[in-house]
């Protein structure tokens, strides 16, 4: 039985990867941060399983990382923990650097100091944001990096320190340069989930309008559940290498909106350009999407498009046989339609109960 340690196990990718590795027969350990707020809903169904274990640790605390690595002595480490929101990185650049850059170094040093450098394989979750102000389209493993946010700059350090330890200490450590990957487990502040949740709420009368930034931004969107398989495959190769993980297809934010609202039962048409562009419900004529400058970034990445040829050839991971863009959007909208329906039902129960209490029907 192999032992895997996943940082960021409570996140979208961490929860899918934990499920995947458990199915492979791994003993799975994950790190979580101490909090008075319960944020473990993505992994709640795994707690109590005999081969699933949680440990308190934080990438900002080298001693906690060292202790967990020393105790677990993993065969594989998947570093998925990060301050992963690009916009937040402009507001909290120092915290982003500490976790996304120095945090990677803390893991590498923990492995080295515990005598696991020759046996433990390390996967680093890198990002397409490294390409930033893109210098060629599509982007592959040889495309020059031009990070365009504090998040991307911090992740670039993580990428290069992985490469340095691989070459300096002959450690098996590598990066997966993941392009945008989404799911029904995506956080609600990320643009894709923001769109699907708003589509569901607008369709069910719980929200009037959705405000977005640049509708023309282009992204390569895939399904997170498909991508964790590729993470695993990267660590199963004879020698460590870095790989682009992407679908090879590109879509705009506007197109994502069209598919999402259509799945929720609302046909859209867009009018205007730039900051004046609006999304209109064809049936009612109501404006349901508007552009807001509040969601523009100081420097904005507008054209990400991955070339997964190397992963397809060397890993046998073929994104064309995975979840399509339309299937991904539909899956996310369906989950949010169900979520909003449950919320509405709960609100109705509370309303009815309040009325019964007021009338003295129940006490």
Automatic annotation (TrEMBL):
A family per Pfam: GDP_Man_Dehyd
Catalytic activity: GDP-alpha-D-mannose = GDP-4-dehydro-alpha-D-rhamnose + H2O
Cofactor field: NADP(+)
Keywords: Lyase, NADP
Record-annotated NAD(P)-binding domain positions: 5-332
EC number(s) given by UniProt: 4.2.1.47
One GO BP: 'de novo' GDP-L-fucose biosynthetic process
One example GO MF annotation: GDP-mannose 4,6-dehydratase activity
Record's keyword annotation contains Disulfide bond: no
Isomerase among keywords: no
Role summary: Catalyzes the conversion of GDP-D-mannose to GDP-4-dehydro-6-deoxy-D-mannose.
Family stated for the protein in its record: Belongs to the NAD(P)-dependent epimerase/dehydratase family. GDP-mannose 4,6-dehydratase subfamily.
Protein name: GDP-mannose 4,6-dehydratase
Taxonomic source organism: Duncaniella muris
């Amino acid at each position: 039985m192999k032992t895997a340690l996943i940082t960021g196990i409570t996140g979208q990718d961490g929860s899918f990867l934990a499920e995947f590795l458990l199915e492979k027969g791994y003993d799975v350990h994950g790190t979580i941060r101490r909090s008075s707020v319960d944020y473990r809903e993505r992994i709640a169904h795994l707690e109590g399983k005999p081969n699933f274990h949680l440990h308190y640790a934080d990438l900002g605390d080298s001693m906690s990382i060292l202790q967990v690595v020393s105790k677990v002595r993993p065969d594989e480490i998947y570093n998925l923990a990060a301050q992963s929101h690009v916009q937040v990185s402009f507001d909290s650049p120092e915290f982003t650097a500490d976790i996304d850059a120095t945090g990677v170094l803390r893991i590498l040093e923990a492995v080295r100091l515990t005598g696991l450098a020759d046996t433990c394989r390390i996967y680093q979750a890198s990002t397409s944001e490294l390409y930033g102000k893109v210098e060629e389209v599509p982007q592959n493993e040889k495309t020059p990096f031009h990070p365009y946010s504090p998040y991307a700059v911090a992740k670039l350090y993580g990428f290069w320190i992985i490469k340095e330890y691989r070459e300096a200490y002959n450690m098996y450590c590598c990066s997966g340069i993941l392009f945008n990957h989404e799911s029904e487990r995506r956080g609600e502040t990320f643009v894709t989930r923001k769109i699907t949740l708003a589509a569901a709420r607008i369709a069910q009368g719980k929200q009037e309008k959705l405000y977005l930034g640049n509708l023309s931004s282009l992204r390569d969107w895939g399904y997170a559940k498909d991508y964790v398989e590729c993470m695993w495959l990267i660590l199963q190769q004879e020698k460590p290498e870095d790989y682009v993980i992407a679908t090879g297809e590109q879509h705009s934010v506007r197109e994502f909106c069209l598919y999402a609202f259509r799945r929720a039962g609302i046909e859209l048409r867009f009018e205007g350009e730039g900051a004046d562009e609006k999304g209109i419900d064809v049936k009612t004529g109501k404006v349901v999407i508007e552009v807001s400058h509040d969601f523009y970034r100081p420097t904005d990445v507008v054209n990400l498009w991955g070339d997964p040829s190397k992963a397809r050839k060397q890993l046998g991971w073929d994104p064309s046989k995975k979840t399509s863009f339309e299937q991904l959007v539909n899956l996310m909208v369906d989950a949010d339609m169900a979520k909003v329906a449950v919320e509405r039902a709960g609100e109705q129960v509370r309303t009815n109960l309040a009325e019964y209490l007021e009338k003295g029907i129940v006490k």
